[in-house]
Every structure is written in C-alpha cells, then in structure tokens.
Amino acid sequence: MRTVLCYGDSNTHGQIPGGLTLDRYALHQRWPGVLAGELGDAWHVIEEGLSGRTTVRDDPIEGAGKNGRTYLRPCLMSHAPLDLIIVMLGTNDLKARFSQPASEVAMGIGCLIHDIKELAPGPGGRAPEILVVAPPPMLDDIKAWEGIFRGGPEKSRELALQFEIIADSLEVHFFDAGSVAACDPLDGFHINHDAHRALGLALAREVEAIGWP
C-alpha cells in the first residue's frame, strides 16, 4: 500500500463556504476523501488540513500554530514513510497583514519542498514524490473578508504561474486547481462540494500519472 499526505489549509480541511470555521463537509465530500475513493485500496490517503495555515509564516493574530513550515516536519515524521506529499497552500499568505507578493508566497512553497527533500520521509529514507497544487484564485467579491484579504484576489490570480515556476525549478510535480475548480460566491475563497469532487478526481489522475516503480 502506498501512502499520500494531503497538506493544506481550510480548503483541504473542507470548510463550508460562508460558514463557521467548524462547519465542514463530510469526509467523503472533501477532496482528499474523493481522492481516496478514486485511488482505491492500494492507497492510504492522509488528510492534514488546517484552517488559516500559511506556508512559512507565523500569524500574529491567529498564532504560530498556523505556520505550515513549523508543523510540517513533525507531521512528516509521524506519518512516514510517505510515497507522495500533496501541498496546497498559499491563500492565507495573501492576507493583508503579511504584505506578500505572489512570488514570495511561491518562495514559501519552495521552502516546504526543500524541507521535505531534506528530511526524506519516503520509503527507504528517500525523498518522496511531491505534488504542488496552486489553490483556485479568490473571487473579487470576498464579502466580509475584504479587509483581511485586501489586495488578495488580484495576487491569487498570480499564484499558479509562480507556483509552477518554483515546482519546475525544484523538479516536483505541479497542478493548477483553478483549472478544474472555482471558489464559491458565498465567501469568495472557499470551494464547495462540487469543486471538492472535481479537484479530487483531477488529482487522482495526476497521482496515477506519476511514474511509480
């Protein structure tokens, strides 16, 4: 059995658009659950989504626990050996409090890739396969979140290109979630159950396409 870790934020956790933080889609509706259903019994899919998680940044309001880099290493060690790690982060780095351009959000993704390769939590102490997923762009209307994500929608439309550049330079796999899924108008930055399904199905095909020995 192969193992894949899905490492992300609220759109991996399955937060329902327009709802509260703990309003969450059922396991089989979230994209990691859809992925598990598609890959079948030959794969163990681990869901590791946290609302508000950033790539490498401590959140001065929500706390240091939102830093995706801080938690990544113990998470990898806990679940090793891992054949594949899917990383879908970046949206929370666009909060106005961080003042980060899309290119530096991509650099944060690059740091996570370096950390994964350095730890080498794959079978036999090797580096696992890594799939970087650019999150779907935010909508222009993000309702009550406009002040928190001021300037974020425009930057979010640049993430896919910047993530692809980083992924190519570090020789890992890349997928643009925006090619199959869009954020829901209820809040403008979370994906609904239809988008979760579309993303899970698309990622299953990406996983199958990797040249597994």
Automatic annotation (TrEMBL):
Entry keywords, A to Z: Hydrolase
Keyword Hydrolase on entry: yes
InterPro entries: SGNH_hydro, SGNH_hydro_sf
Stored Gene3D superfamilies: SGNH hydrolase
Pfam families: Lipase_GDSL_2
Domain SGNH hydrolase-type esterase: start-end pairs: 6-198
Cross-referenced CDD domains: SGNH_arylesterase_like
GO molecular function: hydrolase activity
UniProt name for this protein: SGNH/GDSL hydrolase family protein
